[in-house]
Design goal:
There is one protein chain. By secondary structure, the chain is α+β, with helices and mostly antiparallel strands. It has 2 domains: 63 residues, Arc Repressor Mutant, subunit A (Orthogonal Bundle); 136 residues, Umud Fragment, subunit A, CATH 2.10.109. The protein is 16% helix and 30% strand. The chain is built from 3 helices and 11 strands, in the order H-H-H-E-E-E-E-E-E-E-E-E-E-E. The strands form 2 sheets. A 9-stranded mixed sheet has the order 4-3-5-6-11-7-8-9-10, with no helix packed on it. The chain has a two-stranded antiparallel ribbon with strand order 1-2. Strand 8 and strand 9 form a beta hairpin. It is elongated. The relative contact order is 0.12.
Length: 225
């Protein structure tokens, strides 16, 4: 017996949409009718087609019936699923200057950036990402400019030589964005600007690595008129 048409999305509609979305994300192309039926426990391909026809009328999908994988989610971003990353504050990328100690704890629910999962490695770790706004120009040779947004991934306080990291210096009450290097007697925070000198941190001084840069979002220059 064919299911009765109900207004709005039924649980079966939602189950099919969830499968379409997850399959597309995993495989990079749409599933077949039989694959949809198997995944959603619908044994009849005609019943699968019935629900797909309804989803098409609702504007949830688009179909090309002459090909076997001709189903496309209408709200599917070509870059993949988008998610919000909170902007946690500002990071100084020039000569380190004092900032409030709460700088890294700042969070405004309205301040966030949208990023596609497919643009970042290790999507299973994306929930831990946070963003910082760059203040300064010490990393310009690394294509990080004043006003840009850097996407950070926490590293558990560890960093490898050559990684671009956000560093908190508790004793100086300062933050900075630099390339990180371990030295014999401490650490070197290296700018990517030939006009600036590296910062040397003695082993006796506290240094906290808040995260490493995994992406830079460049800001379009604004002309004041």
């Amino acid at each position: 017996m064919m299911a009765h048409k109900k207004k709005g999305l039924s649980e079966r509609h939602k189950k099919i949409l969830r499968f379409l979305k997850s399959y597309q994300k995993r495989e990079g192309y749409p599933p077949t009718i039989r694959e949809i039926g198997k995944a959603t426990s619908i044994s009849s391909t005609s019943v699968v087609n019935y629900y797909l026809d309804q989803l098409e009328k609702m504007g949830k999908i688009e179909r090309q019936r002459k090909i076997s994988r001709g189903i496309q989610l209408t709200d599917l971003n070509p870059l993949g699923e988008m998610f919000k990353i909170p902007i946690a504050g500002r990071i100084v990328a020039g000569e380190p200057i004092p900032v409030p100690a709460s700088d890294f704890n700042y969070f405004d629910a309205e301040a966030s950036v949208d990023i596609a999962h497919t643009l970042l490695p290790h999507p299973e770790k994306d929930e831990a990402l946070f963003a910082l706004e760059v203040d300064g120009d010490s990393m310009i040779d690394a294509m990080v400019n004043d006003g840009d947004i850097v996407i950070m991934r926490p590293t558990g306080g560890e960093a490898k030589n050559g990684e671009m990291v956000a560093v908190w210096l508790p004793e100086r009450d300062e933050t900075t964005l630099k390339y990180f290097y371990k030295e014999t007697n401490g650490y070197r925070l290296q700018p990517a600007n030939p006009t600036m000198e590296p910062i040397y941190i003695d082993k006796s001084e506290s240094l906290e690595i808040k995260g490493k840069v995994v992406m830079v979002i460049r800001q379009i220059d604004k002309t004041v008129v």
